[in-house]
Amino acid sequence: MDKIQMKTPLVEMDGDEMTRILWGGIKEILISPFVDLKTEYYDLGLINREKTGDEVTVQSALATKKYGVAVKCATITPNARRVREYNLSKEWKSPNGTIRRLLDGTVFRSPILARGITPYVAGWQKPIAIARHAFGDIYDAAEYQASKGERAYIVVEKDGKELSRKLIRDFSDGEGVVQGVYNTKSSIESFARSCFNYALSEKLPVWFGAKDTVSKVYDGYFKDIFARIYETEYKTAFENAGIYYTYTLVDDVVARVVRSEGGMLWACKNYDGDVMSDMVATAYGSLGMMSSVLVSPDGKYEYEAAHGTVTRHYYAHLKGEQTSTNPIATIWAWTGALFKRGELDNIPELCAFAKRLERATLSTVESGYMTGDLIPLFKRQGITPVKLTTSEFLQKISSALSR
Prior knowledge:
Layout: E1 4-5, E2 10-14, H1 17-31, E3 35-36, E4 39-43, H2 46-51, H3 55-67, E5 69-72, H4 80-86, H5 95-103, E6 106-111, E7 129-133, E8 142-146, E9 151-158, E10 161-170, E11 176-180, H6 185-202, E12 206-210, H7 218-241, E13 245-249, H8 250-259, E14 265-268, H9 270-284, E15 290-295, E16 301-305, H10 311-318, H11 328-344, H12 348-366, E17 369-370, E18 386-387, H13 390-402
Parallel strand pairs: 1-3, 2-4, 2-5, 5-16, 7-14, 12-13, 12-14, 17-18
Antiparallel strand pairs: 6-7, 6-15, 8-11, 9-10, 15-16
Helix pairs in contact: 1-10, 1-13, 3-5, 6-7, 11-12, 12-13
């Protein structure tokens, strides 16, 4: 058949380890036979980030600003062990953090639901969308390991003049560590508006939680900005849509979410969103069953899988062993990007293909064919689940897509 033609390329950000293997398989088996795929390619694998001094990550983010839509593979954020393993010159920062900072975006993550996959939390009947503020906080922190006898301060200057000096810790009794984090009014305002706009588009109430009882200035700043923007810009629209906004302490939000039936947008600060999105994804079934998109205030989109690089499976793959790695979140990164590209470029055939690929993937699971992580979760009357290798699963989806 004739392949679907694209007008504008996607920004393609390749990644690391087992997800890099999945990446190539998805393109070869599920996309290229049907779409004349056009991409501007950036290799964000750890080896190439080392080779380019991480400049490739910055280039990929700037390309996303230019073309408007990107799709990203999972990547390694190296720790000390990875520095030794890959013989790196330093512990390079998270590529996701760099891209989010340059795009000033909000990350929205939602579980991918399939009939027969039962959530671990029995009461969850509807999807829980996570909105993660993807700017600042510990992902762009200044850190220091202090020796005994040193003192650490927060010092604020303006025009060379010291305005404020506050003692953080006197390490006279022994060594320790210090971390300085920040955020900005403009970024928090963008985050709030992104959450409220997304909630209106999806008809979801917004739950936001922080710890302003402890962090009275920092978290209190978030709380106050959300409240002001909601009251002055969104309250009427929310009431007309039959949804609401609520703020409470983050530990109370966690308790409420677990007791709920789902069906809300949970707005989280950067670190909270990182952790809670993995918790929600796992509770719905698997980290491989979570979609993720970074949306910038000026309408740029970067789609990615919400999980890591599946290192254990990659080491098995290097030994020549067959793996059963769940590719669904990575497929959803591609379908999300293809759909958005088709929507922006007015190519309905490309949008329709993206949705067909999603349906083919879900129908494969719902008919009982899946990767090993989903087998213990699958319960559907009259169907005994069959465990497939990664390659077999992609081929099974391809057959369903062709039909």
